[in-house]
Amino acid sequence: MATSIAERLAELGIELPTPPAAAANYVPVRRSENLLVVSGQLPMEGGQVRYKGKLGGGVSLEEGQAAARLCAINILAQVKAHCGGDLDRIVSCVRLGGFVACTPDFTDHPKVVNGASDLMVEVLGEAGRHARAAVGVPSLPFDASVEVEAMFELR
């Protein structure tokens, strides 16, 4: 396995984008002591929401997982920007919170949010294992299918 987080991302073929700006009256990240809280990230790509709609209502499980993975990539982009490009300041991913826009009968929220959880473990190894919530909601900003927030411990 690679020795740095940047090397692991390269091995996985992931290039972190410029992090999306906040869409309302909040900050993308907030640090308190050694904890870095990352505001909810949408599956944005090239300035647009890539995955729209509801799980159970036209959006497949696989698309939901891809959306959650893209949210996690955007989370890491926010962390990288906050840390001046040094992702190796991450000690661990403490928690992820996943929100899944879905129909009332959809119940596979955990499987959807695994898209983000799996990426954190792929990139951070054991340090990527985290506590988590996966919640179904009736809608998300900009008709996004998924939103994921995170908390990290930093050096």
Descriptive notes:
The chain is globular, with a radius of gyration of 15 Å. The longest helix is centred in the middle third of the chain and has 22 residues. The mean pLDDT is 96. Helices cover 29% and strands 28% of the residues. The strands form two sheets. A five-stranded mixed β-sheet has the order 1-2-7-5-6. It is built from three helices and seven strands; from the N terminus they run αββββαβαββ.
**Uncertain spans, ≥5 residues at pLDDT below 50?**
none
Major sheet details: 5 strands, mixed
**Top-tier CATH class:** Alpha Beta
Cross-sheet strand order for the largest sheet: 1-2-7-5-6
Helix content: 25-40%
Number of domains as seen in the coordinates: 1
N/C terminus separation: 21 Å
- Principal-axes geometry comes out as globular
Q: Which fold name fills CATH's third level, the topology?
A: 60s Ribosomal Protein L30, Chain: A
Structural class: alpha+beta
The DSSP helix count reads: 3
Assembly context of the chains:
single chain
Q: Averaging pLDDT over every residue, what do you get?
A: 96
**What is the string of SSEs from the N terminus onward?**
HEEEEHEHEE
CATH architectural category: 2-Layer Sandwich
- In CATH, the homologous superfamily goes by the name RutC-like
Radius of gyration of CA atoms, rounded to a whole number: 15 Å
Strand content is 25-35%
